[in-house]
């Protein structure tokens, strides 16, 4: 008991911060006619409760898809339905068809916040706690410390409990985390089941699918594809197909249904990117208007090819040499590649990268914490629009402090701490005059420069009025700066992945 | 060139980051962490005290000194001593940069986001004094052995217990009051007495008295301690007082300090002949024995016993139903509570009870002086005794005992056990302060956070001694959980909700009163049976 209490303290802190943030404003509060993501979630409850399953994804007189139509996989819809049942028990006016549009009240806000809070409490937080408990070679107190750092990650808290994302990230990310947990404890079937659920909750989980696939495939290869491996591969395939089929059951009756859901899930006609995203396409459009220059099909093709190219090294490596560590880093690098290069990316999708980064927080504390800071910063325009400045600043500072005080060697940017020893050894073979202290120094300078620009840009966007000619000046700058940072991280994580085996081998020989 | 500069600055910044983890800056992390939490609490529910303080800002800002204690446009008249009024006056000069309108006396119940921000930040900012006081207090505790683990050092535990105190957080930063910096002043003055800087301690306490007169309750402890251990410079070997060691200079300088502070505070009103008016505002005796919600003290038990006897009497036909005042049966929570069986209590009676309760502890302080620790124990007993028997006591007043008690708790296992019972019940009794649904998770989470931390950390600290709780205490403390479930989750859905709306409050205050009384009793026993003064170091 003496040792457990630190974990209890960490969980309670995480919960407290979540609930206090939820008392602040949410997206689209008091902004008719479309309101915001909060209204979308409420609208889905209304639709799923009042319409038969067959009509959920179809445009009809009862279901105006232009007004926050359902565009997430079936599991989200079921979750909405579940919430709607509860809402109806409490107050039928919240989910009445037509009349409840734009409904806003203190009680309803409380209800909606409670749904997220409960989902978070039941899915995401247990996964994080279990993950940290399973970490090896560190004390109980250190485990609690990493759990606290992960739970305090401001991006997820602000989007789910502040902004009110119209699809609960904590559920999809939590399920994905359960998947990671299952796979890393060698319960591959459970892991893939959890991941399938995550995928059927939010299609963006595809960002994580490649590493999962490669890792499991690699494991099967290791067992020998002719013997045990084939059996486990078949079992995995069956699990995946069965769980997906179960989720899609009501929509598999007719071909048209399935197709319509898929069309809603992947709205190709929405364009290369939405709003201001910190990815390559959006940043590039500052100089070249890619969106207007190329045909849509060409855009899709190009983005697909580049994404593929950038995930390829990590995936190949993972398939050939599946290791838990490699799996975690591959999750980071693949998700980041998808975020940076793929078609139709939301600014909130950065959370999908942030989750695996949280998982390597105890291995490369400095770079991970830095990345998590940048990822929160990249959502600044969104958070400012929702009036969430105060909670953003407070939670970010709390996160920084937790990292600085609790993580091992947070401020230490040595080669070893950055896991770059093997890479630098390789580089030195070719460039012998490279000084050993140069890289840590360089990284520190970059970190400082990045933090300074982030602080300055935050201050500017809060205090200054943008020039009339460029009303989005600060938002674009924020995205551009974050994108540059992300590219750096992509390079870094890929280097760590590629030079990992030498590191591992050396450890083995030692 | 600039790259070089960046490198050196970078090194400095990284070093600064590094120290947060390293030497002693854990204190900063704790303080900053709780400050950030306070910032997150800004949009929570606030009570009428928010309007009270806004009104005082307006009064002190827009009226001359002579009108301060006469102004009665709002029902929330100024009823704190002059220094607090001056404090509001200073704040109002910052407030005008936020929103001029909140300083208008006629804008009753004025509220907007800027007012909210200003008022909340004023509490957060003035809490800096509290943080400093905690820092000073940490220097005063001496653990028996210095544990290697940072989190098992008494200093760390003490600062966590004080800075993250659940009661202060919800009373100041949700309910809205300025207890933080007032408690800071008290802790600072205690710390000064520990550091043998008696004059400073007396000065700070005199100032504190003129900020909020509730601290009069602990004044006897200060008076006797300073007289016995400061004015008398030596004791006989057996600990009794050596009469010829009396130092007149010390007494006179102490008196001078108190007199000067009082003159500064009350002088202007004396000059304007307004003292009676000021005192009539400060000591309103027209209120009832108990606050609307009974504080968990002796009178709560007394009232409950009265109700119980009344019910029994009615059942056994010993009482005539027609003679019983109706109000007392239907709602237990009217301001004027009329007793039916037991004799009614007058203000004078409570005053006498309080004095009798305080007397032994003060005598003990005189007869067996045990240095500053004995003083601290006496101070807590004074605060707790007046909480137990005082007239119209607020449940918030329990903080007056809980905060100084934290200091004792990290030094001795016995005190830790008393402290845990007192804080847990005392904090739980604050729950009815926050009755709105959005704050329900916050209060439960924060309470759990503080309780789990305090119990586990003190258990870890004293793990080599006998267990902190016996089975009865454990059962009692665990009983709080079902009580909370019944009061806030089950009761609202039962049919009794309309018929007996007062039951949850009644249960809460009676249940907590048992714990507080028990803690008070045990603390008294520990003071009276403590080692005789002769054994401790000579003053």
TrEMBL record, chain B:
<dbReference type="InterPro" id="IPR004856">
    <property type="entry name" value="Glyco_trans_ALG6/ALG8"/>
</dbReference>
<feature type="transmembrane region" description="Helical">
    <location>
        <begin position="248"/>
        <end position="271"/>
    </location>
</feature>
<dbReference type="GO" id="GO:0018279">
    <property type="term" value="P:protein N-linked glycosylation via asparagine"/>
</dbReference>
<feature type="transmembrane region" description="Helical">
    <location>
        <begin position="156"/>
        <end position="176"/>
    </location>
</feature>
<keyword id="KW-0812">Transmembrane</keyword>
<feature type="transmembrane region" description="Helical">
    <location>
        <begin position="117"/>
        <end position="135"/>
    </location>
</feature>
<dbReference type="Pfam" id="PF03155">
    <property type="entry name" value="Alg6_Alg8"/>
</dbReference>
<keyword id="KW-0808">Transferase</keyword>
<feature type="transmembrane region" description="Helical">
    <location>
        <begin position="500"/>
        <end position="521"/>
    </location>
</feature>
<keyword id="KW-0328">Glycosyltransferase</keyword>
<dbReference type="GO" id="GO:0042283">
    <property type="term" value="F:dolichyl pyrophosphate Glc1Man9GlcNAc2 alpha-1,3-glucosyltransferase activity"/>
</dbReference>
<comment type="similarity">
    <text>Belongs to the ALG6/ALG8 glucosyltransferase family.</text>
</comment>
<feature type="transmembrane region" description="Helical">
    <location>
        <begin position="348"/>
        <end position="367"/>
    </location>
</feature>
<protein>
    <recommendedName>
        <fullName>Alpha-1,3-glucosyltransferase</fullName>
        <ecNumber>2.4.1.-</ecNumber>
    </recommendedName>
</protein>
<keyword id="KW-1133">Transmembrane helix</keyword>
<feature type="transmembrane region" description="Helical">
    <location>
        <begin position="26"/>
        <end position="46"/>
    </location>
</feature>
<dbReference type="GO" id="GO:0005789">
    <property type="term" value="C:endoplasmic reticulum membrane"/>
</dbReference>
<dbReference type="GO" id="GO:0006488">
    <property type="term" value="P:dolichol-linked oligosaccharide biosynthetic process"/>
</dbReference>
<feature type="transmembrane region" description="Helical">
    <location>
        <begin position="374"/>
        <end position="393"/>
    </location>
</feature>
<keyword id="KW-0256">Endoplasmic reticulum</keyword>
<comment type="pathway">
    <text>Protein modification; protein glycosylation.</text>
</comment>
<feature type="transmembrane region" description="Helical">
    <location>
        <begin position="413"/>
        <end position="435"/>
    </location>
</feature>
<feature type="transmembrane region" description="Helical">
    <location>
        <begin position="442"/>
        <end position="462"/>
    </location>
</feature>
<keyword id="KW-0472">Membrane</keyword>
<feature type="transmembrane region" description="Helical">
    <location>
        <begin position="202"/>
        <end position="227"/>
    </location>
</feature>
């Amino acid at each position: 008991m003496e040792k457990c209490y630190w974990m209890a303290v960490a969980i309670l802190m995480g919960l407290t911060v979540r609930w206090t943030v939820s008392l602040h404003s949410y997206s689209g509060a008091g902004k008719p006619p479309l309101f915001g993501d909060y209204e979308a979630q409420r609208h889905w409850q209304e639709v799923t409760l009042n319409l038969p399953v067959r009509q959920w994804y179809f445009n009809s007189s009862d279901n105006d898809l232009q007004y926050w139509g359902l565009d997430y996989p079936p599991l989200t819809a079921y979750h909405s339905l579940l919430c709607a049942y509860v809402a109806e028990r409490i107050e039928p006016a919240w989910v009445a068809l037509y009349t409840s549009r734009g409904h806003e009240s203190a009680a309803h806000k409380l209800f909606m916040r409670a749904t997220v809070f409960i989902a978070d409490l039941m899915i995401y937080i247990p996964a994080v706690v279990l993950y940290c408990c399973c970490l090896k070679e560190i004390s109980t107190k250190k485990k609690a410390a990493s759990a606290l750092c992960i739970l305090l990650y401001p991006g997820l808290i602000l989007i789910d409990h502040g902004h009110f994302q119209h699809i609960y990230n904590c559920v999809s990310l939590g399920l994905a985390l359960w998947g990671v947990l299952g796979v890393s404890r060698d319960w591959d079937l459970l892991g893939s089941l959890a991941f399938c659920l995550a995928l059927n909750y939010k299609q963006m989980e595809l960002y994580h699918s490649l590493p999962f696939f490669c890792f499991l495939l690699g494991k099967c290869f290791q067992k020998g594809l002719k013997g045990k491996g084939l059996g486990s591969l078949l079992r995995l395939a069956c699990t995946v197909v069965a769980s997906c089929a179960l989720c899609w059951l009501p929509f598999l009756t007719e071909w048209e249904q399935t197709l319509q859901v898929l069309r809603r899930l992947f709205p190709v006609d929405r364009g290369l990117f939405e709003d201001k995203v910190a990815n390559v396409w959006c940043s590039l459009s500052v100089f070249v208007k890619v969106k207007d220059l190329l045909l849509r099909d060409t855009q899709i093709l190009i983005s697909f090819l580049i994404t593929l190219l950038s995930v390829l090294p990590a995936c190949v490596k993972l398939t050939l040499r599946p290791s838990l560590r490699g799996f975690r880093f591959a999750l980071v690098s693949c998700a980041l590649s998808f975020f940076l290069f793929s078609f139709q990316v939301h600014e909130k999708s950065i959370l999908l990268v942030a989750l695996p980064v949280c998982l390597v927080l105890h291995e490369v504390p400095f770079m991970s914490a830095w990345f998590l800071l940048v990822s929160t910063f990249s959502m600044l325009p969104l958070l400012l629009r929702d009036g969430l400045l105060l909670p953003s600043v407070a939670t970010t500072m709390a996160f920084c402090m937790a990292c600085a005080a609790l993580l091992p060697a947070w401020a230490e940017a040595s080669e070893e701490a950055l896991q770059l020893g093997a890479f630098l050894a390789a580089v030195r073979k070719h460039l012998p005059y490279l000084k050993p202290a140069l890289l840590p120094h360089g990284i520190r300078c970059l970190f400082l420069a990045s933090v300074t620009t982030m602080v300055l840009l935050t201050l500017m966007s809060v205090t200054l009025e943008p020039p009339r000619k460029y009303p989005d000046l600060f938002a674009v700058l924020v995205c551009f700066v974050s994108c540059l940072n992300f590219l750096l991280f992509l390079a870094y994580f890929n280097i760590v992945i590629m030079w990992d085996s030498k590191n591992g081998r050396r450890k083995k020989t030692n | 060139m600039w790259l070089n500069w960046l490198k050196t600055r970078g090194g400095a910044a990284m070093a600064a980051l590094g120290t947060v983890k390293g030497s002693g800056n854990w204190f900063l992390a704790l303080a900053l962490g709780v400050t950030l939490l306070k910032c997150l609490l800004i949009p929570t529910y606030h009570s009428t005290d928010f309007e009270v303080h806004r009104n005082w800002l307006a009064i002190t800002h827009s009226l001359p000194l002579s009108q301060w204690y006469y102004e009665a446009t709002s029902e929330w008249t100024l009823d704190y001593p002059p220094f607090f009024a001056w404090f509001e006056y200073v704040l109002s000069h910052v407030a005008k940069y936020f929103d001029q309108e909140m300083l208008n006396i006629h804008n009753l119940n004025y509220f907007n986001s800027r007012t909210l921000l200003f008022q909340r930040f004023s509490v957060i900012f003035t809490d800096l004094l509290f943080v400093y006081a905690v820092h000073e207090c940490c220097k005063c505790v001496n653990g028996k052995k210095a544990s290697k683990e940072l989190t098992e050092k008494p200093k760390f535990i003490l600062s966590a217990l004080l800075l993250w105190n659940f009661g202060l957080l919800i009373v100041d930063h949700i309910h809205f009051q300025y207890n933080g910096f007032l408690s800071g002043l008290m802790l600072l003055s205690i710390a000064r007495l520990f550091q043998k800087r008696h004059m400073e301690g007396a000065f700070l306490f005199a100032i504190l008295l003129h900020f909020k007169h509730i601290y009069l309750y602990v004044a006897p402890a200060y008076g006797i301690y300073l007289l016995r251990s400061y004015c008398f410079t030596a004791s006989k070997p057996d600990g009794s007082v050596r009469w010829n060691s009396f130092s007149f200079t010390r007494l006179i300088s102490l008196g001078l300090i108190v007199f000067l502070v009082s003159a500064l505070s009350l002088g202007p009103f004396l000059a304007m002949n307004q003292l009676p008016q000021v005192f009539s505002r400060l000591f309103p005796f027209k209120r009832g024995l108990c606050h609307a919600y009974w504080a968990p003290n002796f009178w709560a038990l007394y009232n409950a016993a009265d109700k119980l006897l009344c019910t029994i009497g009615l059942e056994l036909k010993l009482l005539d139903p027609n003679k019983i005042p109706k109000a007392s049966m239907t709602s237990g929570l009217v301001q004027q509570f009329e007793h039916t069986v037991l004799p009614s209590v007058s203000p004078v009676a409570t005053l006498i009870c309080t004095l009798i309760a305080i007397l032994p502890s003060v005598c003990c302080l005189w007869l067996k002086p045990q240095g500053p620790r004995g003083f601290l124990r006496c101070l807590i007993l004074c605060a707790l005794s007046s909480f137990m028997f005082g007239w119209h006591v607020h449940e918030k007043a329990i903080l007056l005992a809980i905060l100084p008690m934290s200091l004792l708790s990290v030094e001795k296992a016995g005190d830790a056990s008393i402290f845990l019972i007192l804080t847990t019940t005392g904090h739980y009794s604050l729950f009815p302060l926050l009755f709105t649904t959005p704050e329900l998770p916050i209060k439960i989470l924060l309470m759990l956070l503080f309780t789990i931390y305090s119990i586990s950390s003190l258990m870890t600290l004293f793990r080599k001694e006998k267990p902190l709780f016996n089975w009865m205490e454990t059962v009692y403390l665990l009983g709080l959980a079902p009580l909370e479930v019944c009061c806030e989750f089950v009761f609202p859905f039962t049919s009794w909700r309309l018929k007996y709306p007062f039951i949850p409050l009644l249960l809460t205050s009676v249940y907590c009163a048992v714990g507080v009384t028990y803690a008070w009793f045990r603390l008294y026993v520990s003071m009276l049976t403590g080692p005789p003064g002769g054994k401790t170091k000579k003053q």
